[in-house]
Amino acid sequence: MAPPELNGDALAEILLRVPPEEPRDLFRASLVCKPWLRIASDPAFLRRYRAFHPGAPLLGFFYHVGVENHSLPFVPTTASSPFRRLAYGDGDDPNWWIRDCRHGRVLVKSSRNFVVWDPITGHREELPPLPLSFRSSLYSGALVLCAVAGCDHRDCHGGPFLVVYVGDDNEDEDVLSACVYSSEAGAWGTPDSTHLRLNGMIRMKRSLRIGDEIYCIVGLLGLRYQILMYNLAKHCFSLISVPCVYENVPVLMQNEDGSLGFAGVAGSNLYLWSRRVNPEGITEWELRRVIKLRKTLHNADVVDFAEGVRVFVMSTCFGVFTFELKSGRVRKIRKEINCLSFFPFISFFTPGTAPALYLFVILQYYKADVWW
Amino acid sequence: MEVDKGKGEAEETRKVAEADRDTVTLKSSDGKLFEVSKEAAARLSTVLAGMIAGGSIDDNGTDLKQIGSEALENVVDYCNKHANSIPSAALISSSISFNTAPFKEPEEWERKFVDRLSHDALFDLVEAANFLGMERLLDVTCHKISEMMKGKSPDQIREVFNIKNDYTKEELEEIRQELAWAFYDD
């Protein structure tokens, strides 16, 4: 006997619960028949879908292997990935770097300018040149951020964004400057500067944003590293000492309570620190957790922390691994260890947002008046 | 007057007794009657909670014309099992804020409950849960169905759920080329 015809509401309830962690499942479901596609690509359904799940899933990592890039290496964390054979390409210019990846957007620095790229829609926006002649684009911190206050970043693709750049001044190496580009204004703002001499580069680890504050790990003369804070609203800088010096440069993270976190590995342990105000009103570091790591991760270099999904990327002589903070699950994502930096790509990827199927749906919409 | 007053009192008593009853009777589309704990019904179904609060529960069997007896039996079974199981902290919190709480994994007994159902019964139960506003039962049943779809190709899903393919060959080919990644595991 054929199963009962599901009404659209009940079918939507089923499709709503298809986990976003494997994007192929909702795509495959939408190819079962046209009524299923109609639901799975309906904007109202997709808004509900994004709100229903705890957050956007981790789809994988963009990474660097060398100085020249002709294609865009991507290591997926899903069973099937739309990004595996993705080519970024920038004409004849192989000299480009990914500088950041956040809120579904990728920040690329070519030999000319910054480009903000949405890998799902393919949309690119090239920014005007920086108003300052910075010493070198690599000796800097750069972030791309959603510009909407209070946004939960489930659905902000294509919305307004900011690009924050922190780096040395070309004219005076004792001066550090920061500059913010607003997509709404279509221009860089007036740079802020402070007298601060950096020793070497702001490390090639992703910077962090908490509220109005941008944090980068910087190398300073006579010290191994410190944390530079730049406040977007107050236009001021400050330096924060680190709680502990580790063999490898640690990563900055936002703790679940919103505080600034610091994570480093020593020997067989992962140390998680939190910067908090103590009962005497003094802000200080507090060691919150010590996590015993499995043998393959001993002495690992903590490469990145993917906010939102709370996953660490760690590199050892055995390869590159992800470490889920909540479950303790460890996965090897790459055998080779020649990668320089990893950029987590966290986004919903659903039929309505993918250009291919989106076009198909539009065509259907005009072709058939029956099923809409 | 005396008689009428007596009748009124009896009516009053009957109403009180009805309000005090701890079960409600539900009637399926094919006329079968089922008893379910009033507390569980009100806690698990927004629609039944509304009917109980609004006094539209019929002691002789509240008509649920959209739900067949097999699905209603499963609904009642689920409510009774739920009333008997010790609710975990996770379930209590999810029953308070249905629409905002993220999905919680089915408990062991819920898993067993849906595992024994045939596809038809499962689909019927999704419809019934949706009609009665039973968010948790919807979660559990839909979760089971989405698990059945996991990793399957569109062809396999059609086969499992016995769904007719209404795409033309050309349309499928077109999509298959555009979405090659979705058809192969890395």
UniProtKB/TrEMBL annotation, chain A:
Keyword Transferase among record annotations: no
Q: Which Gene3D superfamilies match?
A: 1.20.1280.50
UniProt KW Metal-binding keyword:
no
Q: Name one Pfam family in it.
A: F-box-like
Query: Start and end of every F-box domain?
Result: 22-48
- Source domain of life is Eukaryota
Its name, as the record gives it, is: F-box domain-containing protein
From TrEMBL, chain B:
> Where is the SKP1 component dimerisation domain positioned along the sequence?
136-182
Annotated keywords: Ubl conjugation pathway
Q: Which Pfam families match?
A: Skp1, Skp1_POZ
Coiled coil: which residue ranges?
A: none
Q: Which SUPFAM superfamilies match?
A: POZ domain, Skp1 dimerisation domain-like
Function (record text): Involved in ubiquitination and subsequent proteasomal degradation of target proteins. Together with CUL1, RBX1 and a F-box protein, it forms a SCF E3 ubiquitin ligase complex. The functional specificity of this complex depends on the type of F-box protein. In the SCF complex, it serves as an adapter that links the F-box protein to CUL1.
Please name the InterPro entries in this protein's record. SKP1 (IPR016897), SKP1-like (IPR001232), SKP1-like_dim_sf (IPR036296), SKP1/BTB/POZ_sf (IPR011333), Skp1_comp_dimer (IPR016072), Skp1_comp_POZ (IPR016073)
Q: In which pathway does it act?
A: Protein modification; protein ubiquitination
Q: Among its keywords, does the record have Magnesium?
A: no
Alphabetized Gene3D superfamilies for the sequence: Potassium Channel Kv1.1, Chain A (3.30.710.10)
Q: What is this protein called?
A: SKP1-like protein
Report quaternary structure and partners.
Part of a SCF (SKP1-cullin-F-box) protein ligase complex.
Q: Where is the SKP1 component POZ domain?
A: 23-84
Q: Where is this region: Disordered?
A: 1-21
Domain of life according to the entry: Eukaryota
- What family does this belong to? Belongs to the SKP1 family.
The answer to whether keyword Glycosyltransferase applies is no
Give a GO biological-process term. protein ubiquitination
The lineage is: Eukaryota, Viridiplantae, Streptophyta, Embryophyta, Tracheophyta
